[in-house]
Amino acid sequence: MDSTTRAEESTAALAAGEGAAEIAVSVRSLSKTYGDGYAVHDLSFEVPRGEIFGFIGPNGAGKTTTLRILATLLEPTAGEVLVEGRCVVNETEEVRRRIGYMPDRFGVYDGVTVEEYLEFFAGAYRLPRGRRAAVIKDVLDLTDLGALRDRMVSSLSMGMKQRLCLAKTLVHDPSLLILDEPASALDARARIEMRVLLKELRRMGKTIIISSHILTELSDLCTSVAIIEKGELVVSGSMDLLQERKWGTDRVKITLHEPRPGVEEALVEIPAVELVSIEENVVVFDYAGAPGEFYKVLKALTDREVPVVSVEHDSRNLENLFLRLTKGDVQ
Ligand SMILES: Nc1ncnc2c1ncn2[C@@H]1O[C@H](COP(=O)(O)OP(=O)(O)O)[C@@H](O)[C@H]1O
Ligand SMILES: [Mg+2]
């Protein structure tokens, strides 16, 4: 065997190996234009298997466009999207079998009962007739709609209709759920029920992508996130990593009455202080310590009689980042 063949073999093995199997969705340099404007521009992120993945951005950021491409309903202008290793453009059927997509504006037929509605979709997904009753019972139980199976869809509350729509997307047992702003039309109680249901679906081994224009709605539900703005990625990664390591620091700016020697030496001795830069009478650094211990920074300076005039904090946690992005137009 020559070396080229071995190299090719090991590349193939890598692609089919554990690393690839752990990724549910891979978005690579995705762009979508409408007319001459970009709705999504050079967007790349990955969704690991088994995550509840928050896809977050202000209105018009490109969430629906991206999710519709993932769901094979819209073709990308450029770039590549793989769902469990299958291309959304060339392997449409393979991808559709694996996903359940709930659009932002869902309609449910009003003139049928809950059970008839699900029977219709079980048929549309070509479930074998012998299995349909059992599958419908399972999804009704899961979405807590069992007691309502004979009710007319038209008589359901908004929250119930939403759960019915989710039940419909579960009929073919997809491994990936794509939910576009599922909480936007729900009252507080229905939102809580939705969260419980999503956690249960995750326990069953499903990967869930859920979009929202409200970060706080998702921050304690999601295990990882991508934040987009104007069609471009701002940040993505696991929630723990983003909250604690990357964005859990404050940028601090201290202004002095006049420049003083020894300020940098005093600051670098404090473990929570990083990336000190001093220009004339302005001192800037990252503070990653507990808020209650910030006085230690000031004490180190005042002990040396450094003439501090003002201290400004710019908190770089996710919520602040998001508020800056949306300039206060959402919660
Ligand atoms: N069918 C369309 N034709 C033209 N522009 C569109 C169309 N759909 C979306 N857009 C534009 O693309 C951008 C992204 O929209 P969208 O993906 O719906 O964002 P989001 O779901 O984050 O609110 C917006 O500027 C929107 O106006
Ligand atoms: Mg949208």
How would you portray this structure in words?
This protein has helices spanning 3-16, 18-21, 63-70, 92-98, 114-124, 129-142, 158-170, 188-203, 215-218, 239-246, 263-268, 295-303, 318-326, and strands spanning 23-34, 37-48, 52-56, 78-83, 86-87, 99-102, 176-179, 207-212, 224-229, 232-238, 250-256, 273-279, 282-287, 308-315. A hairpin with a 2-residue loop joins strand 12 (273-279) and strand 13 (282-287). The chain is elongated, with a radius of gyration of 25 Å. The N and C termini lie far apart (62 Å). By secondary structure, it is of the alpha/beta class. Adenosine-5'-diphosphate binds at residues 34, 39, 57, 59-65.
